[in-house]
C-alpha cells in the first residue's frame, strides 16, 4: 500500500458517512489473492476532475462502477455522505440531497466479500488526494435507503 500523500494546508474536510446496500455484505472463508487484488470499494473526497467519487469494482469487471458528485466534498465543516447502490442504480447524496447518480451499475455490494482495497477518503488512483479531515460516523445498512431516509439521516 502506498504511503499517504502530503495534503497539508489550511482546509479540512469532515464527513459523516451512511453506506447502504441492496444486500448485506458477506464473507465466508479465505478470498483468493486474485479476487482481493482487483476488488475494491472507495469514497474519495475529490478526484482529478474536482468531484467526490464513490466506486465499486469486482474482479472480472472491465471497469469500476462509479458515481461522481457535482463537486468535491465541501471544506471546513461536517458533510453527511450517503451512498446507496442497489437495483442497478447507485446514488450519492451530500447533506441529504442527491448529487450524483449512475443508472447503469452492474456490481452488487453482496459480491464485494473481503477486500484489502476498500477506502473512505481516498481512491485507488494514487494521483487523487487523500481526505484531510475526519470521519465521525459510519453506518452500513443491509438494503438501499430511499431518498427520504438518506435525507432524514443527514438531518440527525
Any descriptors?
156 residues; mainly beta; five-stranded mixed beta sheet; 2 helices; 9 strands; disordered N terminus
Question: Helix- and strand-based class?
Answer: mainly beta
Number of helical stretches of at least 4 residues: 2
Instruction: Look at the structure and give the mean pLDDT.
Output: 76
Radius of gyration: 15 Å
How many strands appear in the DSSP assignment? 9
Largest sheet: 5 strands, mixed
- Reading the helices and strands in chain order gives EHEEEEEEEEH
Based on CA inertia axes, which overall geometry fits? globular
- N→C terminal distance: 35 Å
For the biggest β-sheet, the strand order reads: 7-6-5-1-9
- Beta-strand fraction estimate: 35-45%
Q: Give the oligomeric state of the chains in this entry, treating copies of one chain as homo and distinct chains as hetero.
A: single chain
User: How many structural domains does the protein architecture include?
Assistant: 1
Low-pLDDT parts are: 1-11, 20-35
Question: Roughly how much helix do the residues carry, as a percent range?
Answer: under 10%
Question: Summed up, what is this model?
Answer:
10% of the residues lie in helices and 35% in strands.
Polypeptide structure, described:
The chain is mainly beta. The protein has one domain. It is 10% helix and 35% strand. It contains two helices and nine strands. It has a five-stranded mixed β-sheet with strand order 7-6-5-1-9, with helices on one face. A four-stranded mixed β-sheet has the order 4-3-2-8. The protein starts with 12 loop residues before the first strand and ends with a helix. Mean pLDDT is 76; it is low at 1-11 and 20-35.
